[in-house]
Write a structure and sequence with these properties.
Layout (H helix, E strand, L loop, with lengths): L2 E8 L5 H11 L18 H6 L6 E7 L2 E7 L7 H7 L5 E7 L6 H12 L3 E7 L8 H14 L4 H4 L3 E5 L4 E3 L9 H10 L11 E10 L3 E10 L2 E2 L3 E5 L5 E5 L2 E6 L2 E5 L1 E2 L4 E5 L9 E4 L16 E6 L15 H14 L4 E4 L5 E6 L2 H13 L4 E3 L3 E2 L2 E3 L2 E14 L3 H10 L3 E8 L2 E9 H4 L2 H8 L5 E11 L11 E4 L3 E2 L2 H6 L4 E3 L6 E2 L4 E5 L5 E3 L29 H7 L4 E5 L4 E5 L4 H14 L1
Parallel strand pairs: 1-3, 1-4, 4-5, 5-6, 28-33
Antiparallel strand pairs: 2-3, 6-7, 8-9, 8-17, 9-16, 10-15, 11-12, 11-17, 13-14, 13-16, 18-20, 18-21, 18-22, 19-20, 21-34, 23-24, 24-26, 24-27, 25-26, 28-32, 29-31, 30-32, 34-35
Helix pairs in contact: 9-14, 10-12
């Protein structure tokens, strides 16, 4: 059977998952009367709620008798580990670019990985139906990007297709057509079929699936030979050891599901059941002469956070899994499939250091654990520093901001306060395009300030650039916090009296404990307040005085916003039902003693 393996790569929100929807509908994967909804590939709850792709997934469709394996990849730099490993399965890439925004930082990041693997690119300029789009300029910008990334002559000669995946048409020119067959024909014509190599079997495991019946399932592309059901194989481990094993069952991808087969040819993507104890990147090879494929290098993490057990007074009230053993087992399980993650155990058995690519990468892990019934405490995200030539170095990122011209001054001001340096300033239509070099530390908490300062108009994107010398002190949060003085229920009466002191994160009648952060102080410095005070009743009848309690609605913060908000002496208590901010030292006297000690040490 004729096969094509293609990965779809692009910056976040440029339309990858919508394009996969259209490919599925065009190739009649579903019955005409079947309810499918949109963004079919974003299957888990978190992806649907946030409207982003987190895990790379593959489907296969048949068009004109050719099987096309399509791999949908995430667009955020934080999930780059997903993209790096699945590109190994593809022979060509569809590079999607927004017809207004042009190539963005993430486009550059994934394109570089694809070109290094010698994949054949097809450039798709999407969303040409948007007002003030500039497809021709974007095409030139993409060519320029290929040139900067040292593409070969063959890769520079890429085909370009214009269209709109939302409206469901693609063409080699800007004239709208009826459907997306032009795109599918280009894939058949320009993406080479996988090279068939005779010889002993080789399959590199690039992702894994889990089934409660079959256990862990290895997924990868066969790069040499033929794999058969029941065949004895050798698993070439990362550390160089060999482990005998046997293929129990074999599946290939058909439409949205899998189909059991007896053998799989070279070049096809398949799922293997029966291999024990494998990791991503290892090779399933021939039993007699096993040869391992080179392991895919994955970029290092740039940020870490401390995960520990929930030790607040509300410990164990809401979660099912609360002990350090539960948390440790869950983190170790996550390491199997989340390649860009690292976990380090500390001297304290209740605390773990978890390293990831960025705040979004770590917050998705915390949110997933919370939904599974875990209770935990997470600390402030810290960047990972390195010692280079005896000097302390920290990670820097390229930050790209597109913003209406009247707000550009505000953006430049915010970024330079956080030690960022501007490199590029261009006008794109009504928008200003700004590029900065900024320490990763400076990005923590920048998004919320940026959105407030630009009335929600700024579009921010950033990607890791390199390690450079430490930039010195970067100002964090300006205001202090309001802390609960005693445990108890908050009353509307006391919140009303304290409203001139700051903005609250809690509702009346909410249970609190001492040392919990309940709001933001209007000034720098923390303030301990009593919000559990009730109104003293007298025996005089009062008319209508209670009606005058008018409380401003509480500030709702997402998990990422909480992670960016907290300072070094604060942490977040995460349970299945609540996210609470608190001080690490709950008692006021303990906090004062601790600060005195810190000053004495300094």
């Amino acid at each position: 059977m004729d096969i094509r393996n293609i990965a779809i790569i692009a910056h976040v929100d440029h339309g990858k998952t919508t394009l996969v929807d259209k490919i599925l509908h065009t190739t009649n994967v579903f019955r005409d009367n079947q309810e499918t909804g949109e963004l079919i590939m974003d299957s888990n709850d978190l992806e649907r709620e946030r409207g982003i792709t987190i895990l790379a997934k593959n489907v296969s469709v048949t068009y004109k008798g050719v099987k096309i394996n399509v791999i949908d990849t995430p667009g955020h730099a934080d999930f780059g580990g997903e993209v790096e490993r699945v590109l190994k399965m593809a022979d060509g890439v569809l590079l999607l670019v927004d017809a207004f925004e042009g190539p963005m930082p993430q486009t550059r990041f994934v394109l570089q990985k694809a070109l290094n693997l010698n994949l054949h690119p097809i450039v798709v300029i999407n969303k040409v139906d948007k007002p003030n789009c500039r497809p021709d300029e974007v095409h030139d910008a993409v060519f320029e990007l290929f040139f900067q990334l040292d593409a070969t002559e063959d890769q520079l000669n890429f085909p370009t297709i214009y269209g709109s995946s939302k409206q469901g048409w693609f063409n080699t020119s800007l004239t709208p057509t009826e459907d997306i067959t032009v795109l599918l024909d280009t894939i058949l014509e320009k993406v080479p079929p996988p090279t068939v190599v005779e010889g002993p079997v080789q399959l590199q495991i690039t992702s894994l699936d889990y089934s409660s019946f079959l256990g862990r399932i290895a997924i990868g592309k066969i790069t040499r030979g033929v794999l058969k059901e029941g065949q004895p194989v050798m698993l070439c481990k990362v550390d160089g050891t060999m482990q005998r094993s046997r293929v129990k069952e074999l599946y290939v991808f058909v439409d949205m599901g899998k189909k059991r087969v007896t053998e799989v040819q070279c070049g096809d993507i398949c799922a293997v059941v029966g291999i024990e104890g494998f990791q991503i990147g290892e090779t399933i090879a021939d039993i007699d002469n096993p040869e391992a494929v080179a392991i895919i290098p994955i970029d290092e993490p740039t940020m870490n956070m401390q995960f520990s057990i929930n030790n607040s007074p509300f410990f164990g009230k809401e979660g099912k899994f609360v002990t350090s053993r539960h948390i440790r087992d869950r983190l170790m399980k996550e390491l199997e499939k989340n390649l860009a993650l690292r976990v380090q155990e500390t001297d304290d058995a209740d605390k773990f250091l978890v390293y990831g690519r960025g705040i979004l990468h770590l917050s998705v892990l915390v949110e997933t654990m919370r939904r599974e019934g875990y209770e935990l405490t997470v600390g402030q995200p810290q960047v990972i520093t390195k010692e280079i030539n005896g000097k302390k170095n920290e990670p820097y990122e390229i930050l790209v901001v597109d913003v209406p011209a009247e707000f550009s001054g505000k953006v430049i001001d915010l970024v330079t306060q956080r030690k960022g340096e501007m490199h590029i300033m261009e006008t794109k239509g009504l928008m200003q395009h700004l590029e900065f070099d900024i320490p990763s530390r400076g990005l923590i908490g920048l998004r919320s300030q940026m959105l407030t300062g630009t009335q929600g108009e700024a579009v921010m994107a950033h990607r890791f650039n390199e390690y450079k010398p430490w930039k010195g002190f970067i100002p964090g949060r300006n205001n202090g916090v309001l802390l609960a003085k005693t445990a108890g229920k908050a009353t509307g009466y006391s919140i009303d009296k304290l409203q001139d002191r700051g903005a609250f994160f809690i509702d009346p009648m909410q249970e609190l404990y001492e040392g919990q952060i309940i709001g933001e102080h209007i000034k720098p410095g923390d303030l301990v307040v009593n919000v559990a005070e009730t109104k003293k009743l007298t025996n005089m009848r009062s008319s209508g005085t209670d009606d005058s309690v008018r409380i401003t609605p509480k500030i709702q913060m997402t998990l990422e916003e909480c992670m960016e908000y907290i300072q070094q002496d604060e942490c977040i208590e995460v349970t299945p039902l609540n996210i609470r901010l608190r001080k690490i030292q709950l008692n006021e006297e303990d906090r004062k003693k601790f600060q005195k000690m810190m000053k004495a040490d300094a």
